[in-house]
Each structure stands twice: as structure tokens, then as C-alpha cells.
Prior knowledge:
The chain is mainly beta. 13% of the residues lie in helices and 42% in strands.
Amino acid sequence: MNSGYYIKHLQLKPHPEGGYFKETYRSAECISASALPGRFQGERSFSTAIYYLLEQGDFSVFHKIKSDECWHFYAGESLLLHVIENDGKYLCIKLGSNLAEGETFQFVVPANTWFASEPAPDSSFSLAGCTVAPGFDFADFEIASKARLLDSFPQHKSIIEKLAR
């Protein structure tokens, strides 16, 4: 099965950060604003989940959200998650099913951490899922400025140049 199969059968639509997605779950119950940390403005769903697909040559730009985001690998080939922690440490996590080669089925990107993703060089596409708690809201989503990231993390210039706009 190729990427077109999943885009069609899962009814995926273009995502603003790159790739394709579909929200598959949004909890019916919400957490009140008064019960959430101050970084949130307004209530949030308990949790949300999406399918997310990237084809070779496409990428998810560096961005961050205000919640933890758990990534799950589903189909296709390896997906690279590029994470720049707040202290400047860089991680490249390989999501996939080849555990013997250091891939993992899941990885949690901590809240307020810059990250981007792309299919590995030998991958035609990657289908993953993302679960967010408290639930995702576009008000909590920030796409990185390339200039800002380069100013903050000049030691990671090559990956920032590649995956930021």
C-alpha cells in the first residue's frame, strides 16, 4: 500500500505544517481554563488524536505546542523526529517498526519543545499518529521562525535550515 491509498481511505487532508492529517478523536469532556496551567488560554479537551502522513520530500516544519505530544508509528517506512530541547540538546528519534535498528513505535515530545519531522531518506512515506493531552488547539500551535531558531540554536544550523521556513 502506498501513501495515496492511506490518504484516500483515511480521508486525510493537507496540514498547515506540511503533510496530511485527519483528527480521529477529540474527547467530549473538557478541562476548565482555571484547572489548566497558565500557558493555556481557555478550556481544552482532555485529549485529541490524529493520523499524520508525510511523503518523501515533504516535512513538518519546526513548531511547538503547549501540550505533550505522543507520536505513534503505524505504516510505511521510518519517520525522523528532530527535537531541539530547551537547553539546546538535539535529538533525532527514528519512529518505525525495525526495533533491532533502534527504531521505536512511540515517542513523546514534551510540551513547549521545538520539533520537526520528515520521512527518513530511504522512506517513501510514513504514517503516524499523534495523541495530545490536554487536547490540541490551534491556539497552542506555533510555527518557528527560521531566524529565531538560528539565533537561539546556531549549533543546529543545518537541520534548522532544512526544516524551518
